[in-house]
UniProtKB/TrEMBL annotation, chain A:
SMART domains: REC, Trans_reg_C. It comes from the Bacteria. CDD domains: trans_reg_C. One of its GO terms (molecular function) is phosphorelay response regulator activity. The lineage of its organism: Bacteria, Pseudomonadati, Bacteroidota, Sphingobacteriia, Sphingobacteriales. Residues 2-116 form the Response regulatory domain. Keywords: DNA-binding, Phosphoprotein, Transcription, Transcription regulation, Two-component regulatory system. Residues 124-224 form the OmpR/PhoB-type domain. Transmembrane segments: none annotated. Residues 124-224 bind DNA. GO terms for cellular component: cytosol; protein-DNA complex. One of its GO terms (biological process) is regulation of DNA-templated transcription. This is Response regulator.
From TrEMBL, chain B:
The chain crosses the membrane at residues 12-30, 131-154. Residues 216-404 form the Histidine kinase domain. The keyword Membrane applies. Its EC number is 2.7.13.3. It catalyses: ATP + protein L-histidine = ADP + protein N-phospho-L-histidine. One of its GO terms (cellular component) is plasma membrane. It comes from Mucilaginibacter agri. The keyword Flavoprotein does not apply. PANTHER family: SENSOR HISTIDINE KINASE TRCS, SENSOR HISTIDINE KINASE YKOH. Pfam families: HATPase_c, HisKA. It is an enzyme of class 2 (transferase). CDD domains: HisKA. This is histidine kinase.
Length: 225, 416
């Protein structure tokens, strides 16, 4: 599966590629309008990460062209413009998601994963990971065919970890993912500790390995090999 | 005081004064002329009597008519003749009547006689009354005319001025609409309008430049911030980081977050100023606030803060996004500046919302509390924009906001 990152800031583009690339994904970068259009014409991508302001053209034009070509790519717009109008304009033009800069890479990763799930696994509602089976529609978790009852937040937390497996994610990014960024919580990120503790307890009690590791001073990591 | 009233207040007493003085002068002058006229006729009459005596060697019969009275009296010493005005009792009218009289001495055969010739001044007092009446009427007419004139003429002459005033009242910095002053042939007003539009154009331009600067600066900050944040996310993934490295990454993360918040708050402020949140609707405040409180109680567990909320049904016609931002900022503020084991008291009624929180017992200057970047403690890590955002939203949505320290709690009152 290939992901295309259309972003004129090489530093951001590099970071995104570095973070997303793993055994499943191959990440390609385009730094301006023309090279982006060229790549879109030549190759098939599972997801396109698209900046709006580009040299030689606008990301919205690329979106329009994609629609005309009836390509099946999922598109996430990343933009420094954080206004409702921009979001609506982007989503109306056919984008699947809209992420405001600056964002957390784990957040982007989670959104990319969600789009790929929606685009590729049509009809297939399960994510299987080791012995864990997540039902995306029912939002439930099974281990060896036994239900592990999870609260809504615990389920979303697990999904977030799975989308960022083997990556360190900060408490801050977890809070922003689960509760939104408008919550200004300054110094009290610790309250998510109880959510994570409960999730871990439930997983271990059901007989799963302890995937979620505390990374000192930074956050958590969902380790799986 | 309005221009017309001020004008009338100055011009009317002057006009009245002038008329009173001129009326008085007129009266005195006419009086003087008439009296000299009287005196002349008295002198003529006296001459006639003198001629009669010289001719006949005896006094004519003393006559008393309606107007005239002549009397003779023997006296010892000759005195110079004189005129005088005096009141004499009129038997018929049973009243005192004013007379003008000439007294002179005539010597007949060595005997001095005092002859007094008097003439009634009745006709004269009628004339004085007429003059007073005419003066009064004229004054009244002039006052009336001047009022009407000032009302119509002044209003007409000053119309360009008032049109300009009306336009100025609507003027607001940063609105895209240019004020179009009307053309006027009055040189002063034309000059004023030219100067005003020049000034306003400049002010507008400066304001836009400043606003654009804030917007652009906050925008431009976002890209480098994205880079820093993504690089930190990458560095974090490294294995075998030392404690020093980890701590450095964590504090770098914190600072990136503060900068991000600062940029976003500034952008939000300029968006509110730009009227980018215009859509309003009726919002159920009770539902919104209780939802928000339930959500926040989870976050606030650590500080052991008690929330005491009394919510009655209330609604407001405002922009939903702005009210959401307002409530978030408000509750975050009440929480952030609170103490461990503190209290937040929320009271909602139709038209009034009060939020009080425990905290630092020092009162905060109510004039400064809503100023941008104002912090009660300089060291605090928040950017000092939360309350100015609240103020800006209130201004935009027609909500009155008041801050006070009451019963050792910081109390914010909102009225709409």
């Amino acid at each position: 599966m290939k992901v295309l990152v259309v972003e004129d800031e090489r530093d951001i583009s590099d970071s995104i590629c570095q973070y997303l690339a793993n055994e499943e994904f191959l990440c390609e970068a385009a730094y301006d309008y023309h090279s982006a259009m060229e790549k879109i014409h030549l190759y098939e991508y599972v997801c396109i990460i698209l900046d709006i302001t580009l040299p030689n053209g606008s990301g919205l034009d690329i979106l329009k062209q994609l629609k005309d070509m009836q390509k099946a790519e999922g598109v996430i717009i990343i933009s420094a413009r954080n206004s409702l109008d921009d979001k609506i304009a982007g989503l109306k033009s056919g984008a699947d998601d809209y992420l405001v800069k600056p964002f957390h890479l784990p957040e982007l990763s989670a959104r990319v994963a969600a789009i790929i799930r929606r685009r590729l696994f049509e009809g297939k509602n399960y994510i299987t990971l080791d012995k864990l089976v997540l039902d995306i529609f029912k939002k439930t978790l099974k281990l060896d065919d036994i239900d592990i009852p999870l609260t809504r937040k615990e389920y979303e937390l697990l999904l977030y970890f799975i989308s960022n497996k083997n990556k360190v994610v900060t408490k801050e990014s977890i809070v922003e993912h689960l509760w939104g960024s408008e919550m200004d919580l300054a110094d009290s990120y610790n309250f998510i500790y109880s959510h994570i503790k409960n999730l871990r307890k439930k997983l271990i009690q059901a007989g799963s390995p302890d995937y979620i590791k505390v990374v000192y001073g930074m956050g958590y990591k969902f380790s799986i090999h | 005081m309005k221009l017309f009233n001020r004008y009338n207040r100055i011009s009317l007493p002057i006009i009245m004064g002038i008329f009173l003085i001129s009326g008085l002068c007129c009266y005195l002058w006419v009086n003087h002329i008439l009296i000299s006229d009287f005196d002349e006729s008295l002198t003529e009459h006296a001459q006639k009597i003198t001629d009669y005596i010289n001719k006949n060697g005896e006094f004519p019969k003393a006559v008393v008519t309606d107007d005239w009275m002549v009397s003779y009296k023997k006296i010892d010493h000759a005195t110079p003749s004189y005129f005088e005005t005096k009141e004499l009792y009129d038997q018929e009218d049973k009243d005192f009547v004013q007379y003008r009289s000439l007294s002179y001495v005539f010597t007949l055969k060595g005997q001095h006689y005092l002859i007094i010739v008097s003439k009634s001044l009745e006709a004269l007092s009628g004339l004085s009354r007429s003059i007073a009446l005419i003066t009064t009427i004229t004054i009244l007419v002039v006052i009336l005319v001047s009022l009407v004139l000032s009302h119509f003429l002044l209003r007409r002459l000053w119309r360009p001025f008032y049109t300009t005033l009306d336009l100025l009242r609507e003027f607001k910095l940063g609105t895209p609409r240019q004020l179009a002053f009307e053309n006027t042939s009055t040189e002063e007003f034309a000059f004023m309008n030219r100067q005003l539009s020049e000034m306003m154009r400049n002010a507008d331009k400066e304001y836009l430049v400043l606003k654009e600067f804030t917007e652009n600066a906050s925008h431009e900050i976002q890209t480098p911030l994205s880079i820093i944040r993504s690089k930190l996310d990458i560095i974090m993934q490294g294995e075998n980081l030392t404690e020093l490295q980890i701590n450095s990454i964590a504090s770098a993360f914190q600072s990136v977050r503060r900068l991000t918040n600062l940029g976003q708050s500034l952008l939000l402020l300029s968006k509110i100023e730009n009227n980018q949140f215009i859509k309003t609707e009726y919002l159920d405040l009770k539902e919104r606030i209780s939802d928000k409180l339930t959500q926040l109680e989870e976050f606030w567990g650590e500080k052991q803060i008690t929330i005491d909320a009394v919510l009655e049904p209330a609604s407001i016609n405002a922009n939903a996004d702005l009210i959401d931002i307002l409530l978030n900022n408000l509750f975050n503020n009440a929480h952030r500046h609170n103490v461990d084991g503190g209290l937040i008291r929320v009271n909602l009624q139709q038209g009034v919302l009060t939020i009080a929180n425990t905290g630092d017992k020092k009162p905060i200057d109510p004039d400064k509390i809503f100023t941008r970047f104002y912090k009660a403690e300089q060291s605090s890590s928040n950017n000092g924009l939360g309350l100015s955002i609240i103020k800006q939203i209130c201004d935009q949505s027609g909500i009155d906001i008041k801050y006070e320290l009451s019963w050792q709690m910081h109390l914010f009152t909102f009225e709409w």
